[in-house]
Amino acid sequence: MAKPRSSFRCSACGHSVGKWVGRCPECGEWGTVDETAAAVRPNGVGGVAPTSPARPITEIDANASVAVATGIEELDRVLGRGVVPGSVILLAGEPGVGKSTLLLETVKHWAQRGQTALYLTGEESAGQVRMRAERTGAVHQNVYLAAETDLATILGHVDEVNPSLVVVDSVQTVVATGTDGVTGGVTQIRAVTTALVSMAKNRGIAVVLVGHVTKDGAVAGPRSLEHLVDVVLSFEGDRHSSLRMVRGIKNRFGAADEVGCFEQRDDGIHEVPDPSGIFLHQRDTDVSGTANLVTMDGKRALVGEIQALGNESTMATPRRAVSGLDSARVAMVLAVLQSRMGIIQIAKNEIYVATVGGMRVTEPAADLAIALSVHSAIEGRTIPHSTVAIGEVGLAGEVRRVTAVARRVAEAKRLGFRHAIVPAGGDENLPAGIRITRVSDLGQAVNACTASPVNAPF
């Protein structure tokens, strides 16, 4: 037998080094490099008899992994038709965004279908969770509740209750006895998650883990945590808005770019199957400086509104304020309008551009709507509220093609829009029943949508 040799591996990224270092040279994380002993096996080592022999794939029962609907359609949309037995789901989000409220709603619907759910909380007492469940109407006799942080005791609760769904809130508070490291540390989180994944796979129990996020919005803990689980969901929301979104980051059982929409209310969290109404105007008359757009969030088309305002300024450098949009792209669009369209007032006026309803848009397909809203605000020309604009604006003033134009136009038609301005040259079959105007540059787009001039604000 050859002498075992030691190596050092980073638990965050898996990078191996020959000696211990305090900071991983690959990912830059501190305190994640641990020693791992690897024995060198001699040549000719025989195999070990497997505990379960391999079988032909045709003999494997596919019904054992059929997704079970949770009863919340927006959540099932993101998961891919529901929860797969034996799967492990990681739900991450900022504190107070509503993760626990959503999961209480999930276990309630799960229990109403005759299934047993076990909710394990490590951050609150059982009484506090019961109070929230009373407020949101999530009390059911098939929902079992326990406040526990010890991993061995949690596994004992699972053996006693024998549930089909287990929720652990949160994985950073659970301690694995006999494992080194502080609570919530890299070693502890990896050990706890590994044990829960093994339990889920061996017993066919679906497990939902609640995870914290870092300051930059990433899932806290080692990067290997995301590799251990089957599904990673991000629960997003602005504290100044009631809208909440569940976004799929990783999904072994469905699409990884789906989005589910919810609304946080006093009596709990509710589904929003048609969120476009939140992002649209509430007016019956046309106002200058507004333009509608259709953005893609994952595979979901959302219709929203962009508003722009221009005020004359005496400052040498007029102010630029952006809300809900990429400030760099807005600055680029303003430069194109000034250079290619000859709108010299842009350099002399304060420009404010914002979305409606707390909508966040970062894709280039919003460029055309931004340009039209700013042009409408500066020139004082209104854009009919029944018109939507879709397209990317280039530095030469051209309108470039974007993805999923047909899906965007279909969503606009469903919501009652009668005119769509899209880039020229597309080969997609667009829906009938809505007027389509194909444009190749900003000049054509302005001529296609602006109405009669009104009194300019300056």
From TrEMBL:
<keyword id="KW-0346">Stress response</keyword>
<dbReference type="Pfam" id="PF13481">
    <property type="entry name" value="AAA_25"/>
</dbReference>
<comment type="function">
    <text>DNA-dependent ATPase involved in processing of recombination intermediates, plays a role in repairing DNA breaks. Stimulates the branch migration of RecA-mediated strand transfer reactions, allowing the 3' invading strand to extend heteroduplex DNA faster. Binds ssDNA in the presence of ADP but not other nucleotides, has ATPase activity that is stimulated by ssDNA and various branched DNA structures, but inhibited by SSB. Does not have RecA's homology-searching function.</text>
</comment>
<keyword id="KW-0862">Zinc</keyword>
<dbReference type="Pfam" id="PF13541">
    <property type="entry name" value="ChlI"/>
</dbReference>
<comment type="similarity">
    <text>Belongs to the RecA family. RadA subfamily.</text>
</comment>
<dbReference type="GO" id="GO:0003684">
    <property type="term" value="F:damaged DNA binding"/>
</dbReference>
<dbReference type="GO" id="GO:0005829">
    <property type="term" value="C:cytosol"/>
</dbReference>
<dbReference type="InterPro" id="IPR041166">
    <property type="entry name" value="Rubredoxin_2"/>
</dbReference>
<keyword id="KW-0227">DNA damage</keyword>
<dbReference type="InterPro" id="IPR014721">
    <property type="entry name" value="Ribsml_uS5_D2-typ_fold_subgr"/>
</dbReference>
<protein>
    <recommendedName>
        <fullName>DNA repair protein RadA</fullName>
    </recommendedName>
</protein>
<keyword id="KW-0547">Nucleotide-binding</keyword>
<dbReference type="InterPro" id="IPR027417">
    <property type="entry name" value="P-loop_NTPase"/>
</dbReference>
<feature type="short sequence motif" description="RadA KNRFG motif">
    <location>
        <begin position="250"/>
        <end position="254"/>
    </location>
</feature>
<dbReference type="GO" id="GO:0000725">
    <property type="term" value="P:recombinational repair"/>
</dbReference>
<dbReference type="GO" id="GO:0140664">
    <property type="term" value="F:ATP-dependent DNA damage sensor activity"/>
</dbReference>
<dbReference type="InterPro" id="IPR020588">
    <property type="entry name" value="RecA_ATP-bd"/>
</dbReference>
<keyword id="KW-0863">Zinc-finger</keyword>
<feature type="domain" description="RecA family profile 1">
    <location>
        <begin position="64"/>
        <end position="213"/>
    </location>
</feature>
<feature type="binding site">
    <location>
        <begin position="93"/>
        <end position="100"/>
    </location>
    <ligand>
        <name>ATP</name>
    </ligand>
</feature>
<dbReference type="GO" id="GO:0008270">
    <property type="term" value="F:zinc ion binding"/>
</dbReference>
<comment type="function">
    <text>Plays a role in repairing double-strand DNA breaks, probably involving stabilizing or processing branched DNA or blocked replication forks.</text>
</comment>
<dbReference type="InterPro" id="IPR004504">
    <property type="entry name" value="DNA_repair_RadA"/>
</dbReference>
<dbReference type="InterPro" id="IPR003593">
    <property type="entry name" value="AAA+_ATPase"/>
</dbReference>
<keyword id="KW-0067">ATP-binding</keyword>
<keyword id="KW-0378">Hydrolase</keyword>
<feature type="region of interest" description="Lon-protease-like">
    <location>
        <begin position="350"/>
        <end position="458"/>
    </location>
</feature>
<keyword id="KW-0479">Metal-binding</keyword>
<dbReference type="GO" id="GO:0005524">
    <property type="term" value="F:ATP binding"/>
</dbReference>
<dbReference type="GO" id="GO:0016787">
    <property type="term" value="F:hydrolase activity"/>
</dbReference>
<dbReference type="InterPro" id="IPR020568">
    <property type="entry name" value="Ribosomal_Su5_D2-typ_SF"/>
</dbReference>
<keyword id="KW-0234">DNA repair</keyword>
<dbReference type="Pfam" id="PF18073">
    <property type="entry name" value="Zn_ribbon_LapB"/>
</dbReference>
<keyword id="KW-0238">DNA-binding</keyword>
